[in-house]
Amino acid sequence: MSRVVALSRHGWSAYCRALEERPIITKSLTAAAGFALGDVVAQHSTKGAGQRYDYLRTARMTAFGLFFAGPLQGHYWYGWLDRSILPLRPKSLAAVVSKIGIDQSIMAPLGTVAFFAAMKTMELKPSESLEAIKERTWPTVSAGWQLWIPAHAINFGFIAPSMRVLYVNVVAIAWTYILSKAAAGNGEESVEVQVSA
Questions:
Q1: Which of 3, 43, 68, 103 sits 20 to 30 Å CA-CA off 109?
Q2: pLDDT beyond 80 at 174
Q3: How many Å apart are CA 111 and CA 81, to the nearest integer?
Q4: How confident is the model at residue 109 (pLDDT cuts 50, 70, 90)?
Q5: CA 111 from centre of chain
Q6: Within a 10 A sphere around the Cβ of 73, how many other Cβ atoms?
Q7: Residue 157 pLDDT > 60, yes or no?
């Protein structure tokens, strides 16, 4: 047992050191792992008899976490919010509410559009991107508010900026499950069912 604790401490120290030394790469890999795990959970929990596991779908979700969610959202977007919104009082109620409002009114729709466009492009069906965006963006964003508004209240109010990506990616396992279902399903119905479950 003490060996497991020692290994855990060593792993945590290594992760914190990597965040300091290589923040973008570390955040990108953290997001990739979160998106992969979310898709694995989504596929295993909904796989019917005779259905095969879709490894390419997991690869697409992982790639989105690696190239978009980690660097762009996790590093640059949160960094910009922290530098721009009441930087002298970052944990104040006004700062937290402002960051949540800006994040959910700007990044949530843009990130969702990017997600559906990226998924269709990686499926080699870029011509279907616009239809997927039109059908699924609003149901996905509005479903996401149920998860991300309370999650970001904790994120912006209590989590250290350096640990935001790790926290968000733990929450994102649930969100990736929702996104994965939305990408595989047919829009509003599949998203709403998964959020309420």
A1: 43
A2: no
A3: 15
A4: very high
A5: 9
A6: 22
A7: yes
User: Which token pair is 30?
Assistant: 């953290």
- Cα–Cα distance, 109 to 106 (Å, whole number): 6
Burial of 177 (0-12, 13-18, 19+ CB in 10 A): buried
Specify the residue for token string 């980690």: 70
Q: Residue 144: which of 191, 180, 193 has the closest Cα? A: 191
| Three-class DSSP labels, the chain | CHHHHHHHHHHHHHHHHHHHHCHHHHHHHHHHHHHHHHHHHHHHHHCCCCCCCCHHHHHHHHHHHHHHHHHHHHHHHHHHHHHHCCCCCCCCHHHHHHHHHHHHHHHHHHHHHHHHHHHHHHCCCHHHHHHHHHHHHHHHHHHHHHHHHHHHHHHHHHCCHHHHHHHHHHHHHHHHHHHHHHHHCCCHHHHHHHHHC
Average pLDDT over residues 14-27: 94
User: Which sign does the torsion angle of CA 121, 43, 47, 132 carry?
Assistant: negative
Helix axes 164-184, 23-46, angle to 10 degrees: 40
- Contact of 130 with 150, CB cutoff 8 Å: no
